[in-house]
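Fold it.
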Amino acid sequence: MALRMTSSHSRNEFQQSVLLQREVYRYTYELMVQMTQTATCNRFHWVEARLARWLLMSRDRLRSNQFHLTQDLLGNMLGVRRVGVTNAAGALRQRKLISYNRGEISILDGDGLEAAACQCYQIVKDMHNVARA
Protein backbone atom coordinates (compact mmCIF):
# COMPACT_ATOMS: atom_id res chain seq x y z
CA MET A 1 0.00 0.00 0.00
CA ALA A 2 1.28 3.46 -0.81
CA LEU A 3 0.10 7.03 -0.59
CA ARG A 4 0.91 9.88 -2.90
CA MET A 5 0.97 13.64 -2.47
CA THR A 6 2.07 16.58 -4.55
CA SER A 7 5.51 18.05 -3.99
CA SER A 8 3.96 21.35 -2.89
CA HIS A 9 1.85 19.58 -0.24
CA SER A 10 4.92 17.65 0.91
CA ARG A 11 6.96 20.86 1.14
CA ASN A 12 4.21 22.57 3.15
CA GLU A 13 4.00 19.66 5.59
CA PHE A 14 7.77 19.63 5.94
CA GLN A 15 7.87 23.37 6.71
CA GLN A 16 5.12 23.08 9.31
CA SER A 17 6.22 19.94 11.13
CA VAL A 18 9.31 20.02 13.32
CA LEU A 19 8.94 16.27 13.90
CA LEU A 20 8.92 15.57 10.14
CA GLN A 21 11.94 17.81 9.66
CA ARG A 22 13.82 15.99 12.41
CA GLU A 23 13.03 12.58 10.88
CA VAL A 24 14.00 13.63 7.36
CA TYR A 25 17.26 15.18 8.59
CA ARG A 26 18.04 12.12 10.73
CA TYR A 27 17.38 9.81 7.79
CA THR A 28 19.55 11.95 5.51
CA TYR A 29 22.37 11.99 8.06
CA GLU A 30 22.23 8.22 8.56
CA LEU A 31 22.18 7.62 4.82
CA MET A 32 25.22 9.86 4.29
CA VAL A 33 27.15 8.15 7.10
CA GLN A 34 26.29 4.74 5.67
CA MET A 35 27.31 5.76 2.13
CA THR A 36 30.60 7.20 3.36
CA GLN A 37 31.35 4.14 5.47
CA THR A 38 30.48 1.83 2.56
CA ALA A 39 32.78 3.72 0.19
CA THR A 40 35.60 3.49 2.71
CA CYS A 41 34.86 -0.17 3.35
CA ASN A 42 34.85 -1.01 -0.36
CA ARG A 43 38.27 0.58 -0.68
CA PHE A 44 40.06 -0.92 2.32
CA HIS A 45 38.48 -4.20 3.42
CA TRP A 46 38.60 -7.75 2.08
CA VAL A 47 35.64 -8.97 0.00
CA GLU A 48 34.75 -11.69 2.51
CA ALA A 49 34.44 -9.17 5.36
CA ARG A 50 32.45 -6.79 3.13
CA LEU A 51 30.08 -9.59 2.11
CA ALA A 52 29.57 -10.50 5.77
CA ARG A 53 28.77 -6.84 6.53
CA TRP A 54 26.33 -6.63 3.64
CA LEU A 55 24.54 -9.82 4.65
CA LEU A 56 24.22 -8.57 8.23
CA MET A 57 22.84 -5.24 7.03
CA SER A 58 20.35 -7.09 4.82
CA ARG A 59 19.31 -9.24 7.79
CA ASP A 60 18.78 -6.16 9.95
CA ARG A 61 16.65 -4.40 7.36
CA LEU A 62 14.64 -7.43 6.23
CA ARG A 63 14.37 -8.80 9.78
CA SER A 64 15.06 -12.27 8.46
CA ASN A 65 18.00 -14.65 8.28
CA GLN A 66 16.89 -15.82 4.82
CA PHE A 67 16.75 -13.78 1.65
CA HIS A 68 17.39 -13.82 -2.07
CA LEU A 69 20.41 -11.89 -3.36
CA THR A 70 21.90 -12.60 -6.77
CA GLN A 71 25.62 -12.64 -7.45
CA ASP A 72 25.14 -9.72 -9.82
CA LEU A 73 23.51 -7.60 -7.12
CA LEU A 74 26.09 -8.57 -4.52
CA GLY A 75 28.90 -7.92 -7.00
CA ASN A 76 27.54 -4.44 -7.70
CA MET A 77 27.11 -3.67 -4.01
CA LEU A 78 30.60 -4.91 -3.14
CA GLY A 79 32.34 -3.51 -6.22
CA VAL A 80 33.65 -6.90 -7.37
CA ARG A 81 33.05 -9.38 -10.17
CA ARG A 82 30.82 -12.43 -9.69
CA VAL A 83 33.85 -14.63 -9.10
CA GLY A 84 34.74 -12.47 -6.10
CA VAL A 85 31.24 -13.02 -4.69
CA THR A 86 31.54 -16.76 -5.36
CA ASN A 87 34.87 -16.98 -3.52
CA ALA A 88 33.76 -14.87 -0.55
CA ALA A 89 30.42 -16.70 -0.19
CA GLY A 90 32.24 -20.01 -0.48
CA ALA A 91 34.59 -19.03 2.33
CA LEU A 92 31.66 -18.00 4.57
CA ARG A 93 29.82 -21.19 3.67
CA GLN A 94 32.89 -23.31 4.42
CA ARG A 95 33.03 -21.73 7.89
CA LYS A 96 29.33 -22.68 8.29
CA LEU A 97 28.29 -19.05 8.74
CA ILE A 98 25.88 -19.07 5.78
CA SER A 99 24.24 -21.42 3.36
CA TYR A 100 24.21 -20.13 -0.19
CA ASN A 101 22.71 -21.72 -3.27
CA ARG A 102 21.61 -19.92 -6.44
CA GLY A 103 21.02 -16.61 -4.71
CA GLU A 104 19.17 -18.08 -1.73
CA ILE A 105 21.12 -17.09 1.36
CA SER A 106 20.54 -18.19 4.93
CA ILE A 107 22.55 -16.86 7.84
CA LEU A 108 23.35 -19.89 9.99
CA ASP A 109 25.56 -18.21 12.61
CA GLY A 110 24.86 -14.52 13.14
CA ASP A 111 27.49 -14.08 15.84
CA GLY A 112 30.10 -15.80 13.70
CA LEU A 113 29.13 -13.66 10.72
CA GLU A 114 29.51 -10.53 12.85
CA ALA A 115 32.99 -11.71 13.82
CA ALA A 116 33.79 -12.23 10.11
CA ALA A 117 32.52 -8.78 9.14
CA CYS A 118 34.73 -5.72 9.20
CA GLN A 119 34.18 -3.07 11.87
CA CYS A 120 32.12 -1.02 9.40
CA TYR A 121 29.02 -3.06 10.25
CA GLN A 122 29.21 -2.13 13.93
CA ILE A 123 30.05 1.52 13.17
CA VAL A 124 26.89 1.98 11.08
CA LYS A 125 24.78 -0.06 13.51
CA ASP A 126 25.98 2.02 16.48
CA MET A 127 25.36 5.26 14.59
CA HIS A 128 21.81 4.12 13.80
CA ASN A 129 21.16 3.27 17.45
CA VAL A 130 22.51 6.63 18.64
CA ALA A 131 20.42 8.52 16.08
CA ARG A 132 17.30 6.68 17.28
CA ALA A 133 17.93 7.57 20.94
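The chain has a mean pLDDT of 93.
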